[in-house]
Design brief:
- The chain has about 425 residues and is mainly alpha-helical.
- It has four domains: about 1-55; about 65-185, Tyrosine recombinase, N-terminal domain (DNA polymerase, domain 1, Orthogonal Bundle), CATH 1.10.150.130; about 195-330, hpI Integrase, Chain A (Orthogonal Bundle); about 380-420, no CATH class.
- It is about 50% helix and about 10% strand.
- It has 16 helices and eight strands.
């Protein structure tokens, strides 16, 4: 009974420490005879002191998860983001992050700063394969905002990996701020809107060929509310007498949440929209009475078997065909919101009012998005500068410095005249 050092098999230069302590046996392999002897001395001393932990079976090695495996754990622990935000995280992971680095283990050697920079380069090289290809059949360049959002999602995941002890530091932290506009597709500074003629054509086609959807589209066009806010709108939120909509919820992919701003807001309705909604309510109440069921709580329902509107189905089966029949190229339904804002601004409405209607957190944000639509003024304003300076040529003329120094009497005379 005790601790012994032996080479086994002999001549192999493989050294072992054999432990036999009160009927419990264990063998430890060491790299050299010296290491085995040192280990034996330490184990023997520990056993004599009653420290028998060395005899316990070795703990199984901890398996390091891959980025793909850890991403599922990360998503399940997120509680604060809105459902729509979680959908964005899942989409970025599925489409852009996991195909490129999902198989990498969460170790500092695999996920280096250089590897994350290489991931950025790969994203740019792949481009936006989800969008339509250009005229030459190539994938369109990835928008800077898309790339930035992808990096922010990856950085959030790796922050949690650091907290859980898998990584010593986040190799993606701060890289999103290093992106330059030249690194990806050049963003179009001016947002797209429908012209008044295009908007009129769109609404006419909706009224004639998709009459059941006309009130829904008219609401988007005349109130500027978001698609999910219109889907979740209930009759208790509609004040026909005051011509006001109360926006206090949004729905996306069947999940209801608070509006994007995080708070409710009041939105003014035009007379045309007020009439359309009043007529729609009367129609729904009449149909419900005939069917012997209560009137629906939602303002807008999918035609046919009445049910909630699904945004993807609306885009594919209603929005796109209407644009095609109106002879308009494809633009997102959100373009109606931009058009609403642009028409208000072009009509000279105060930026504060536009901000309140849209539900932006500040007029500064509204200005950043729609500032290019603000009236630039009248060119005659700069012409008046010419009129003012032509009466006083010296205001814009070229003077010789010597003349100012050598003619003090003349200068004093001009100053005295100007004071009068």
């Amino acid at each position: 009974m005790g601790v012994r050092v032996r080479e086994k098999p002999k001549g192999s230069k493989i050294w072992w420490v054999f432990i036999n302590w009160k009927g419990r046996r264990k063998a430890l392999r060491c790299g050299s005879k010296k290491a085995a002897e040192v280990t034996a001395v330490k184990i023997d001393a520990a056993l004599k002191l009653g420290q028998v932990d060395v005899l316990a079976p070795p703990a199984p090695p901890v398996r390091v998860p891959t980025v793909a495996e850890f991403s599922e754990q990360w998503l399940q622990t997120l509680t604060r983001p809105r459902p729509a935000t979680l959908d964005d995280y899942r989409l970025r992971l599925r489409v852009r992050i996991l195909p490129l680095i999902g198989a990498l283990p969460l170790t500092a050697t695999a996920l280096t700063r250089e590897r994350v920079r290489g991931f950025i380069a790969e994203l740019i090289a792949v481009g936006n394969h989800r969008a339509a290809k250009d005229a030459e059949g190539r994938a369109r360049a990835l928008a800077r905002g898309t790339l930035k959002g992808t990096l922010q999602t990856l950085s959030g995941l790796l922050d949690r990996a650091v907290e859980d002890g898998w990584l010593p530091k986040n190799p993606a932290r701060g890289l999103a701020s290093e992106l330059t506009p030249t690194a990806t597709a050049t963003e179009v500074e001016e947002i797209e809107v429908f012209t008044p003629d295009e908007l009129a054509r769109l609404l006419v086609v909706a009224e004639q060929d998709y009459s059941a959807w006309h009130p829904f589209l008219l609401c988007l066009a005349r109130s500027g509310i978001r698609l999910g806010e219109a889907v979740a709108l209930e009759w208790r939120d509609v004040d026909v007498e005051r011509r006001v909509l109360l926006i206090r919820r949004s729905e996306r992919r069947g999940r209801v949440s608070v509006p994007k701003s995080g708070k409710a807001r009041r939105v003014d309705m035009s007379r045309q929209l007020t009439r359309a909604l009043a007529d729609l309510k009367s129609l729904q109440e009449a149909e419900a009475a005939l069917a012997g069921r209560p009137a629906p709580a939602r303002v807008f329902l999918s035609p046919g078997p009445a049910g909630p509107i699904r945004d993807d189905a609306f885009r594919n089966h209603v929005w796109t065909p209407i644009l095609r029949r109106a002879g308009l190229r494809y633009r997102k339904p959100h373009t109606l919101r931009h058009t609403f804002a642009s028409l208000l601004i072009e009509a000279g409405e105060a930026l504060k009012y536009v901000q309140e209607q849209l539900g932006h957190h500040s007029p500064a944000f509204t200005l950043a998005v729609y500032g290019h639509l603000l009236p630039r003024g009248d060119r005659r304003a700069v012409d008046r500068l010419d009129d003012a300076t032509e009466r006083n040529p010296r205001a814009t003329g070229q003077f010789e410095p010597e003349s100012l120094v050598n003619e003090p009497d003349q200068i004093r005379g001009e100053v005295s005249i100007s004071r009068h």
